[in-house]
Amino acid sequence: MALPLAPKGPLDTMSFSDLGLSQKVLDAVTATGYTEPTPIQAQAIPEILARRDVLGIAQTGTGKTAAFTLPMMTLLEQGRARARMPRTLILEPTRELAAQVEESFNKYSVGQRLDVALLIGGVSFGDQDVKITRGVDVLIATPGRLLDHFERGKLLLTGIEILVIDEADRMLDMGFIPDIERICKLVPFTRQTLFFSATMPPEIQRLTETFLHNPVRIEVARQSTTASTITQRLVATHGHASAKRETLRRLIRDAEELKNGIIFCNRKSDVHIVYKSLSKHGFNVAALHGDMDQRSRMAALEAFRNGTTQLLVASDVAARGLDIPEVSHVFNYDAPHHAEDYVHRIGRTGRAGRKGTAYTIVSESDAKVLGAIEHLIKSKIEFDGPDLANLPPDDGERRPERGRGRERGERSEKGRGRGREPRRSREPEIVVMADDQPDEVEARAPRPERTRPERTERPERAERPEREERRERPRREDRRPRDRDDDGPTPQGLGDHVPSFMLRSVKLPPKTLEPDEAEAAHETEE
Ligand code: ADP
Ligand code: MG
Fold first, then answer.
1. By three-state DSSP, how is residue 197 classified?
2. Which fold has domain 11-219?
């Protein structure tokens, strides 16, 4: 079913006061300093005020949060919150993003009497319980923690008038979809539903139609369009870790007008290794990934936000939605496995009309994902420096990372360094186990509540495959199963728990190490 496109008005001349927002909300907007609505705001706000369901697609950093919060606040002026029955619900894929949206909400709702509760994992239930019990107008939540509260009997979702699913394609992807389906059954059928994202793969869009009723589709730019303010470049490198780290250091040192930057790795173990390596080389850096405790996650993000640290090495937990206005650079230490993640990662820079630069480090093995990214964004990304075919020879043969492909003693494909005994990989032990896990996977604390016997509100559960089984079945053939961030399901296999004996470092005889190898071996020593 094709969704109707929103009629396009003379948006250039739109002002906030033309959109139907209440005076209180307009005053708050003025206080925020916004002078005119962004295109997604100009198009979505009147539709939301008219109680339509909306599927809103607009580039990263173009004000989608205000596009749904401002009209919500106007609609909430009618009626009052009741104990344990929130009136609106905003779902976010990560804790940090949920916390950020709460902050935005508080900023936009100054001078209004709206009660907001933030329900995210990794922090205690106590304060959250108190707020819910008192009654809130707005719940901002990650799905896992929301369901935990529900299962504890502390929360009723039957009063929800508006349901917002931000980063909607991510939330309907594997990992989250069982919880989203469940939450959608717990909220009234007659609610208004709003979906927002910068990306919307066609197969996920088909799914949105089961959750939206007669929606208006607002597409400010074709989905997956990158923000026009971001300069994108590829940087060719050899595929082994020391070459990649060296390339990264060079990029950071040579970057023009580098104020600060986020460095994305595909694996949590690499986040740790790259973080340690950069620290050792004197960079001012913090790390953020889903295996860190919540306090450390928040502290790392806050330090980066307020400029105490200049660089943040992160997994895809930081890829979606985070709005740190002045991020000047994004560095993809790895090209992401999912092309949509590229759009979101680089979208951490170039926000709200500012300029930004995104470098993606690529080696030969990235050809396929690079093709998928360029296909998705419908443009070629230029190389900064030599492309892969013209990369100068490596300074010596090294075994491929993580022992994939070749066994010890085999020759490299190109036969460089012939006659030499291949060296041991310099990214040792950690990676072997942990690296098979996709990286935005975040350990979820054991949640006994979720394994209690089935409740009556989910009678269909018996016929449905278990959560883990559903997760394992990719929706698209080219997709690796992707796990969720925050309160995700039990990981497969060893998952996020790597027994400590497997993480122990192996000391290599010094004679087999070159200087940079010695550094890497040192990095992982306990
Ligand atoms: P998105 O969700 O589209 O990625 P956000 O909602 O996080 O974007 O907003 C990105 C930035 O733009 C925020 O810093 C926000 O304060 C700013 N912003 C939003 N609306 C406006 C506006 N109308 N004028 C100026 N800045 C805006
Ligand atoms: Mg957003």
1. strand
2. Rossmann fold (3.40.50)
